[in-house]
């Protein structure tokens, strides 16, 4: 200790003894060096604190020019996807007087009750299979009524005279509730109506064949756009977006038939895009969201790069000019166990839940943008996103802690890679008038507090190789928020990690509060525990219809108040559960326990 003190005083003497002309610095700089050296002296005089070798360490550099700086946070999560017959209420619609709306308004500061119905936090809905071309549902529900010919849900058909006839009442029924409640639709031109089909459609997603008359197809899309403008106003609809197709590189969604699938898709796209632009020159249009699987998993008959090469340099099949419009580029991206174990890929060991999966999708989209200077600045987006298939071959929205943690990591990667939008699927369940949010919906509500703030994606030195720990810092309205996600690809793996975060000196003495979504705070994890205790659990965590027997579902509904209270409590800022270690002349170090899986959000002010 004496030797360490002597070394420190020697450093002070060295700095203080130098003449100003030797230092060639101002007096204020010399004082700064002195204070830094004094701090070093005092650090040397203290017992050595060794960082826990088992702790993960988060780097925090809050300069606007730092490597992790990502600018202002935009609410890229405020849009959901809904397919075919489920476009109509009540699938998405929640009455604005529900208690959960008041809870979310109080927490987020947003006005969510401006209209009679709301889609929780969302401002838009992706209208999948909007045109018709449906497969026959196995049971009634939504817009479909049993015994009704499936073709009657198409927006277009041929009359006895051979002319195109339209069912605009179907358009009104699907879109009026959205528009009247302040939501903006993304019009998806995917499954073509049955009158255009060259044969039988695919039993998985419905009609997947190309139009048999591209001129008539273009005429139909133009008529549709005129109806939209007449019904909802040109100025409004001229700002809408249109997407031609859904995962057209997946054979279950698209089959060219006798002619090449790629050529058929390009013709379908060009005629649709030309029709939209004729009526709505300000509307945005883009190609399908390309499938999330990698080369070798599917027979990709519509390669994404070939599509954009045509857009960049090909002859437009509708106009005869060079090139086609493309106002965005999109993919699907799912957490999905690659079944069978036959697919050889470095990420396969993580069962499709590795954070780098989204980075690979971002790389594809950026290569698509690079095909032409016209596309250099178009937004990249994820139009289908969520957990899909786990290692147990169980399909699940993962409404608990794992789903929240995986989604948080995905969103951090999305911010890092510059995604403009990341859509989501279902986000809640109803229990006798009460709404219980899925874990990933809880996450989106929390992130509403970040909107408009400056964001940094933080480097994390993970102490555990197989634990994915990611962190985001957001500075807004004088507060610093730190969001830490932690999970393992093996959903059932649970552990406790320790995370250290060195803070800048200005946060010395700051108040720290926290929110946390983990196995103890998630309402759905509690539901599963209750089901197991009652012997009414039939599957691992999932929507209640998946993890509960019929009797179990009745039991959960009967004690819904308990889960509603847990949900309310999850939005209540709590005292910081970790430790704060102060350092002389430097900022404090936060040491916090992090459960795996979990999302921890710290508020520092």
Automatic annotation (TrEMBL):
<dbReference type="Pfam" id="PF01229">
    <property type="entry name" value="Glyco_hydro_39"/>
</dbReference>
<dbReference type="InterPro" id="IPR017853">
    <property type="entry name" value="GH"/>
</dbReference>
<feature type="signal peptide">
    <location>
        <begin position="1"/>
        <end position="17"/>
    </location>
</feature>
<keyword id="KW-0378">Hydrolase</keyword>
<comment type="similarity">
    <text>Belongs to the glycosyl hydrolase 39 family.</text>
</comment>
<dbReference type="InterPro" id="IPR049166">
    <property type="entry name" value="GH39_cat"/>
</dbReference>
<feature type="domain" description="Glycosyl hydrolases family 39 N-terminal catalytic">
    <location>
        <begin position="156"/>
        <end position="387"/>
    </location>
</feature>
<keyword id="KW-0326">Glycosidase</keyword>
<dbReference type="InterPro" id="IPR051923">
    <property type="entry name" value="Glycosyl_Hydrolase_39"/>
</dbReference>
<keyword id="KW-0732">Signal</keyword>
<dbReference type="GO" id="GO:0009044">
    <property type="term" value="F:xylan 1,4-beta-xylosidase activity"/>
</dbReference>
<protein>
    <submittedName>
        <fullName>Beta-xylosidase</fullName>
        <ecNumber>3.2.1.37</ecNumber>
    </submittedName>
</protein>
